[in-house]
Amino acid sequence: MNKNQQHTNSGATGKLTVIGAGPGDPDLITLKAVKALQLADVVLYDALVNPELLNHAVNAELVFVGKRKGCYSYQQEQINELIVERGKTQNVVRLKGGDPFIFGRGAEEMEYAAQFGLQVAMVPGISSSVAVPASQNIPVTKRGASESFWVITGTTKEHKLSNDVALAAKSNATVVILMGMSKLPAIVSLFKKENKQKTPIAIIQNGTRENEKIGIATIETIEKVVENKQLTNPAIIIIGEVVNHRSALQSAIETYKQSDQVTTL
Ligand SMILES: C[S@@+](CC[C@H](N)C(=O)[O-])C[C@H]1O[C@@H](n2cnc3c(N)ncnc32)[C@H](O)[C@@H]1O
User: Active site includes 46?
Assistant: First the structure.
């Protein structure tokens, strides 16, 4: 064993653990992910990760590899190379927003590391795609309102709106769109084409965080609401009758909040 190896927390070398950081609220992370952070030698973390979570990585070097306006941002190839370089002698944790396997490139990074002989593991996270609507009391499925849900990217590898949005607009499913704010006019026109002008839609920005914002409207009015409320990225778009569930419960939720500590934990 060489000098570097003796200093690793786990004692093992050649390891990558990709872990989900949840949607933003630092309490919405799994115990398994916290344990992995405690054992990390180095944590490579993304922009959507709540920095409070880094406090769990008591012995680790912390390396920001995300994209932030005005800052140097790592390319995916550079992140892959960094994982492999560090993973030769250290226990690398890759901390990603939400769930790393949902539009998170977690699978790609594991494949790359495995090609270079690293042992790899994955700790699932709470995805913003379901947790952000849920935290605003919007269920993605509900008996009588929705039998399925689609989670679609608004921005594909080619920077286009996924063709799946047009297919989803024809269905009765709840449609959840990530990374879709810049394509909102195109999304709205696809739903209008299906005569869904009155379908409810919610947009939640920075869900589960202190600076959370929400806009509720119908397909025909959402663009105005976005403009008035200045809603922008990172945001989730939820389209479907399930959005009405929130309004139906609103007064009961508010009363609960005022009388109990649980929702503000
Ligand atoms: C690259 S994807 C990563 C998704 C992540 N792997 C997950 O499972 O939540 C990033 C997009 O997820 C959505 N997102 C992630 N966290 C969010 C949050 N707290 N509030 C609203 N949208 C969020 C936004 O659409 C954002 O642009």
Answer: yes
